[in-house]
Specification:
- A seven-stranded mixed sheet has the order 1-4-7-3-2-16-15. It has a six-stranded mixed sheet with strand order 8-10-11-12-14-13.
- Helix 3 links the parallel strand 2 and strand 3.
- It has a single domain, classed as 4-Layer Sandwich (Deoxyribonuclease I, Chain A).
- The protein has 304 residues and is α+β, with helices and mostly antiparallel strands.
- Helix content is 17%, strand content 30%.
- The protein is built from six helices and 16 strands.
Length: 304
C-alpha cells in the first residue's frame, strides 16, 4: 500500500554506505525468524499435462489501518483470491499485506491439496524490540506475506535482507513448488523513507540484490510488491535496480529484452508489482480484483 501520489525518493546514502549502519542484532533477527508452513495431507493435484504453470502476485491490502479500509471485507478479498485460481488459473500465488487467518480460510476453501507458507511482518522500535503486526478483527491473525500453492512446498526459506533499523520489517520468502520443480520467491520491499530513524536511507537496492542472489537462473519465478517503478530515465530511483533482473530474467510484462515499460499495477498509475522468470513466458495478465489498491499480476510459463 502506498499513497496515490508518487513518494519522494532520497538517496543520500546508497546501499554500500548503509552496510555499516545496520546492527548485527537486526540481521540476526532476520535470519532466525521462521516462516510458518501449513499444508493439507491429501495427495497434490496432478501436474498440468501441458507442462505450464501460472503464478500470480497480489498485494491484498488486507490491513485496514494501512489505508485499506475501503477496499472490501476479508470475505470479499478471499473471494477475489479464489477467482484468481478458478477464473485465471493461478496455481501459485505470491501474496502481500495479507492476514494469516484469512489465508488459512482461503486455503481450506480451495481444497485439501493446497499449501501455505506464511511470514509475519514485525515492527522494530528504537530500543531494538520487534513486535509482530496483528490484523484487526477476530481470528484474522498476523499480518504478513505468503506463498499459496496448489502443489506441495519444500525448502521454504526466509531470505535475510537489510531492513529499517526503526520501522516495519518486511522481507523475502522462497519455496520450491515440488511438482513442476520451480523455485518461487515472494518479496515485499521497503517504502522510501521507511526507516523512522534514518528516513534518507535506501533499502530496496540491497533487498533486490538479496532476492536475485536467492533464486536460480532457470527454473524460477520471483516477484511481489517492490514499491518501485521500473528502471528508466524518468525514475530517480532507477539506480537501485540490479542489472541482472532484466538481463538474466524476463519480467511478466516486458515486451522486449530492451524494454522497461509495462502496465500499471497500482491505482496511482505506477507499476509496483513484478514477476520475473528464467522460464519461457506464455502470457501476462493484469487483473483488477476490485478489492485492493493493487491489481493482480499473473504470469504463465512453460515448465517442461
Amino acid at each position: 500500500m502506498i499513497p496515490a501520489v508518487r513518494p519522494s525518493v532520497r538517496s543520500d546514502v546508497r546501499g554500500r554506505g548503509l552496510t555499516g549502519a545496520i546492527t548485527a542484532s537486526v540481521l540476526l533477527a532476520l535470519v532466525v525468524t521462521a516462516a510458518v508452513v501449513r499444508s493439507a495431507t491429501s495427495p497434490p493435484p496432478a501436474h498440468s499435462a501441458d507442462r505450464t504453470l501460472t503464478v500470480a502476485t497480489w498485494n491484498m491490502c488486507g490491513i485496514k489501518r494501512w489505508n485499506c479500509s475501503n477496499t472490501g471485507s476479508p470475505a470479499a478479498k478471499t473471494s477475489a483470491l479464489g477467482r484468481l485460481v478458478t477464473a485465471d488459473g493461478a496455481r501459485v500465488l505470491l501474496l502481500q499485506e495479507a492476514c494469516s487467518g484469512d489465508l488459512e480460510a482461503a486455503r481450506k476453501g480451495l481444497g485439501r491439496s493446497w499449501h501455505l507458507a506464511f511470514r509475519a511482518y514485525s515492527t522494530r522500535d528504537r530500543a531494538g524490540r520487534t513486535t509482530p503486526v496483528r490484523c484487526a478483527g477476530d481470528s484474522r491473525g498476523s499480518a504478513g506475506f505468503a506463498v499459496l500453492s496448489a502443489y506441495p512446498l519444500t525448502s521454504v526459506r526466509a531470505v535475510p535482507s537489510r531492513q529499517p533499523s526503526v520501522g516495519l520489517q518486511r522481507g523475502i520468502l522462497c519455496a520450491t513448488v515440488r511438482a513442476p520443480d520451480v523455485r518461487v520467491c515472494d518479496a515485499h520491499l521497503t517504502l522510501p523513507d521507511g526507516d523512522a530513524a534514518h528516513p534518507s536511507w535506501e533499502y530496496r537496492d540491497d533487498q533486490l540484490k538479496a532476492l536475485v542472489a536467492a533464486v536460480p537462473k532457470q527454473r524460477t519465478v520471483f516477484g511481489g510488491d517492490f514499491n518501485l517503478d521500473p528502471p528508466g530515465a524518468r525514475n530517480p530511483a532507477a539506480w537501485v535496480w540490479p542489472s541482472v533482473a532484466y538481463r538474466t530474467y524476463r519480467e511478466c510484462d516486458q515486451a522486449s529484452p530492451s524494454s522497461r515499460t509495462a502496465r500499471a499495477t497500482h491505482t496511482s498509475g505506477h507499476k509496483l508489482d513484478y514477476l520475473f522468470t528464467g522460464l519461457p513466458r506464455l502470457a501476462c495478465t493484469v487483473r483488477d480484483t476490485g478489492k485492493s489498491d493493487h491489481r493482480a499480476l499473473l504470469l504463465k510459463v512453460r515448465t517442461g
